[in-house]
Amino acid sequence: MNSRISAAPLTTAVTCCCLTLALCVTSAFAGSDTPIDQVPEWLTTQLGGDTTLVIANENAYARAVPTLPTEELRKFTFGNRLFNTNWVTAPASVDAFDGLGPVFNRVSCSSCHTRDGRGQPPAAGEPLESMLIRISVPGQTEHGGVRPVPHYGDQLNEKAIAGVPAEGRTVVTYWEREGRYPDGTTFSLAEPKYEFVELAFGALPPQFLFSPRVAPPVFGLGLLEAVPEEEILAHADEGDTNHDGVSGRPNRVWDVVSGKTCLGRFGWKANQPGLRQQNASAALGDIGLTSHLFPKQNVAEGQLAAAGAPDGGEPELKDEFFEKLTFYTQVLAVPAARNVQDPGVRRGARQFADIQCTACHLPTLHTGTHSDVPQLSHQAIHPFTDLLLHDMGPALADGRPDFLASGSEWRTPPLWGVGLTEVVNRHSRFLHDGRARSLEEAVLWHGGEADEARDRFMHLEARQREDLLTFLRNL
Amino acid sequence: MLIRAGKLIAAAGVATLVAAPITSRAEIHGQVAAIDAREQVATYSEIAYRNYRDAYEAALKLQRAVDDLILDPADDSDESLAQLRQAWIDTRPSYGQTEAFRFYEGPIDFGKQADGTIGPEPLLNSWPLNEAYIDAVQGNPRGGIINDPSVEISRATLVDRNARDDEADVTTGYHAIEFLLWGQDLNANGPGNRSARDFVGEGVPARRRAYLKVVTDLLVENLKSVVDAWTPGQANYRAQFAAMDAKQSVSKILTGLATLSGFELAYERLATPLDSGSQEDEHSCFSDTTHVDVLANATGVANVYFGRYGDYRGAGINTLLQSVNPELNARLEEQINKSVALAAAIDHPFDKTLATAPGSPQRTKVEALVTSLQTQARLLKLAGAVLGVEIVVTIEVEP
């Protein structure tokens, strides 16, 4: 079966938005030069507080927080081993590491989060290697989550073990869209389009929704986990009562352990309440590993061959392994910022604050008490996120609601370590679907609540824009 | 070249401090004494030079054996392959000892961690290695770079592909060569058993020969670079190391020893395979020589601590600590000797130990070594505190 779906609901909006950016900007904001002595108080190398590690090479995301006692490193080391494990089809001679699939996207955590870093979209026509497609149909489950697509589930699993059909394949192509800064400088943005082919279980339904997601970096997550809910909620401004054009609201999601609705914290749409559920969900959805949180195989109804495949134990990801994997993701250290004494970096940080990028990319949060890892407790951290949802406008919208997150809302992604993406992952692709080919393009794609901040960025002088990007490159 | 060394600790008594967590470094301030570390730094540099030179010369012998194979591609005798394998085995004890010079941004590993440059280590000794990325494996007889004619076998392509998309996709170094020489270890009682015929003929065997040649040459070249960095009388790292503030150089020396002991050997190479029970986690899994690596690492720490290598005798770190805190030094000397003895006593092949049940006598021996190495790392950190130098057991996750 080889059904094709044209999936480009956003094309028109994107084109319009980008082409007219330069024309419709009417902000009275005039960029100001920044005296070096007026740098924001949050500009520091210690982005992860005392847990920050000074490192800027390709292992910059891959190390444990330096304050961890040496004795704890046995767990970390084994967690790293698990993160890098290439899971194999059950039954296998290495019994502990079988249970792949029956359907999956990649065989290990690290194949998407390479060196604990960021995934990227494929070159045009190539298979997805470190990104995936979430899918659903409109409506909500009883707990408020997405409704899976009949016969496919909530994620397109593009690979499968022998004897089981893969669900389908995604083909990504890009269209260039020209734009222009007010100063006349031109730019071009690449807008992705997706087609789904080789669909094994028939055409996708007409009301089908999808959301492309690249693998986000996985360091610093224990710190984000330790930020008290009250501190996150204190920054929420659902009705934009301060009239800054930026609202910010928490997602409320289903916690499978407590059986309650909780604050969403992780994932591109903050649809996961904590690291354990995030990890268990990724293990199941992406690799096909059951765990005590999700003991049921990831097999949509009607996938007969998959339903009959042998499993790799109950659960496939043993509790002891799961805890070590979780520990690993809790204690991966945040790399230090670089060159914070450099005048360009200092001016850029000031611009970042002046044009109010900081309204969402909140520079400072504080951790409370981390119940598992005391070293993560009571730190002033600088993740540059409020962990809240923001409407990012039609150009970036996926049109696929997820719990309270609308089809155009995204959780502010952290920016710490973002400047090391090229060193660690040898690419510079950003945003949820990796469409931006540089940090500058990522800024230019911002819309919705970020319209004004992006307009202010575009109105900066070229050297001021460069300063701001220099600041980001040193995070 | 003076070090400020804390005295308080000597009065506090070593036994209590060993049991206490080392995080309470704040307590270790007090009266400080001046110490001259010139001799110890010079000894360390000389050991590094001699040790890397031995590793380099062993690699040259391996290179000659590989060249012989390339020159006579019709030679399918088991003897030739056995000689080649022996040449590889002979490279390992010396290289394993040099790992005491890692983990502090020295010439071997990270160049400058803070600016992103990387030394030759990831190209030399990366593991675990996904052998399916390199060559055919059971179940995939046409897999790997060697069977993919679209990939040119050259230095540039293999270096570029090393751990590019996956940390285990290692293309170069000792363990890539090991896999080429032995093949997969599918035998519970012995090492891998690749046929000598795998290297005979045109097409895929020719690509396999070419691969072996490229990665062996690269190994030699990378080892030469570290020999050069430690050669006496040159404007090189050794000269910089000698000119460094004593606190800085002693900090690097102790950081290397503590990290190799407490993290790399204890956890990466021993505890992780014990915890997984998987042969995949064994350091030299194709040749079944992991026990050689383990002993070499433990010996490398002892070399530096006692200031000796082969017939060379110099001033070890023990002489520095002895003058400040003889009790702690005695404890460390004993612990390091104990680790070497325990390392020499583990059973081999190591994968047979991994296959035993938890609590087995074989596992118990390895666990005892892990514990001894942990204690050793704690004592080394304590020695750093006594000498007033910072030691962070940096975690290297191997690409």
How would you characterize the overall build of this protein?
With 475 residues, chain A is an alpha+beta fold. Chain A has one domain. Chain A has helices at residues 11-24, 73-84, 221-225, 229-234, 275-287, 304-307, 319-331, 343-354, 421-425, 439-445, 451-459, 462-473; strands at 5-7, 103-104, 131-140, 146-147, 159-160, 169-180, 186-197, 209-214, 252-255, 260-263, 365-366, 380-381, 389-391, 409-411. In chain A, the strands form six sheets. In chain A, strands 1-7-6 form a three-stranded antiparallel beta sheet. A three-stranded antiparallel beta sheet of chain A has the order 4-3-8, with no helix packed on it. Chain A starts with a strand and ends with a helix. Chain B is mainly alpha-helical. Chain B is 57% helix and 4% strand. Chain B has helices at 8-12, 14-19, 38-71, 78-98, 121-124, 155-161, 174-182, 204-230, 237-243, 246-276, 290-306, 317-322, 326-345, 350-354, 361-387, and strands spanning 2-6, 32-36, 308-309, 312-313. Chain B has a two-stranded antiparallel ribbon. In chain B, a hairpin with a 2-residue loop joins strand 3 (308-309) and strand 4 (312-313). In chain B, helix 10 (246-276) packs antiparallel against helix 11 (290-306) and helix 11 (290-306) runs antiparallel to helix 13 (326-345). Chain B starts with a strand and ends in a 12-residue tail after the last helix. Mean pLDDT of chain B is 87; it is low at 1-32. The chains are: A alpha+beta (475), B mainly alpha (399). The A-B interface holds A 54-60, 62-64, 66, 69-71, 73-74, 76-78, 80-81, 84, 86, 94, 96-97, 108, 110-111, 114-115, 129, 338, 420, 423, 426 and B 21-23, 110-111, 113-118, 128, 130, 164-168, 262-263, 266-268, 271-272, 275-281, 374, 377-378, 381, 392-397, 399.
Measured by residues with Cβ under 8 Å of the partner chain's Cβ, the largest interface is: A-B, 36 and 43 residues
Share of residues in strands of chain A: 5-15%
Order of helices and strands of chain B: EHHEHHHHHHHHHEEHHHH
How many DSSP H or I helices of chain B? 15
- SS elements, strand count of chain B: 4
